[in-house]
What does this fold into?
Amino acid sequence: MSQALYESSLKSLPRLGRGKVRDIYAVGDDKMLIVVSDQLSAFDVILPDPIPEKGRVLNEMANFWFGKLGHIIPNQLTGIDPEDVVEGEDEKAQVKGRSVVVKKLKPLPVEAVVRGYLIGSGWKDYQKTGAVCGIPLPTGLKQADKLPEVIFTPATKAEVGAHDENISFAQVEKMIGKELAARVREVSIRLYREASDFARERGIIIADTKFEFGTDAKGNLVLIDEALTADSSRFWPVDEYRPGSSPPSFDKQYVRDYLETLAWNKTPPAPRLPAEVIAKTSDKYREALRRLTGQELRA
It folds into this structure.
């Protein structure tokens, strides 16, 4: 197992920004290098302990889905080897297996959340209102029940340390226009459906996920950021799925469930994670990659 990378420190490229788990660098005027660290965020707070191999798993998983779903929508990838755009062995080691060189695009100011099951904030919303993000649902549904129909529940993109907020589809239309909003919803649901069918054949339920999109110079919609990873989705094992409670997962829900047992108010600073929780979380991420792709994490 390689040493965990909490954050990158590249000197050969100008850094454009740092997200919750990604560092972004400029590659010329029209491309960017995205380095996926081993940081983990929960409840929109970055935890102090990295998860070994997590960044490499997320990178490999996202690239797998970008390739598999490329017939639905273009994506951000350029095909350029990240090790070719940095200098020195230390920088090459930092980017190896956990980075991509992508096109520089204009990101949309919304997160495209798609839900197929009643869990997380959707379950809490349903318990209070009988709806999820204003979308009415049948009465009597249990936690983790499969929804009658896949639903699109967009959210704002919060700054680091802030919480994403659910918004209505009408608000999305006001933000980006009706035609583009409809396209985002249609593509998001199609991506989710196709990925869900594929994953279920491999023993994984994708309960929900979020996509991010950008537009190119011609206004074409492009899939950006990450896609269908264990950070942006809830992955459940098919053979252990039981409605009525929160199922075991291959994603950071395991960490969320642990944190829920603590007297923590979900604001920084976050508590330290026990070694057992760190190791088990790392195992869960790698198991998800194995099931979905049939491959072990590359050396």
Notes: Residues 82 and 200 are 32 Å apart (CA to CA). The radius of gyration is 19 Å. DSSP finds seven helices and 15 strands in the chain. The longest helix spans residues 178-201.
